[in-house]
Here is the input.
Amino acid sequence: MSFLSLVSLSAVAANGLLAGTSLDQSVKQLPARKRIGAVAYSAYTQAADLGNGIPLYATLGIGAACLSVAAAVLGWHIGTEATRLPAVLAGVLAVLHSAATSQAAPTMFSQRRAQGNEAALANIFDRFARWQGIRCVLQLVNFVALLWLWTSVMATAGQ
Here is the structure.
């Protein structure tokens, strides 16, 4: 297995985990706030996302972004013509995902200033949900771009 195929496969795996956690949050966790209320949801997210979730999300998010950029650079420089477009897409999507996270994460942390205030928390979680939706789409598309990159690398290695 070439270095490019190893890095691109690692990026696929990390981004698959990241996209899965993001999809879980967007599809399952965030909608629950409408049923249980913002104050109860805040208690949950502070215990989970802002507790044990911080090292998990930070490691996974930063690691996936770094692996995506590494795969993109390698795919462009040492890959073939077939790897260039998916490599560029993966790199750009990783940067965009990171930019969306730079808006979503501080929004999630801001709930600490509104503890117990249902209306303020609802506004915070609505704003977070918008950024999370953008982030989730970017992560899912990046996962697909990385799969495309990896399959392109493997296809050209077999020739």
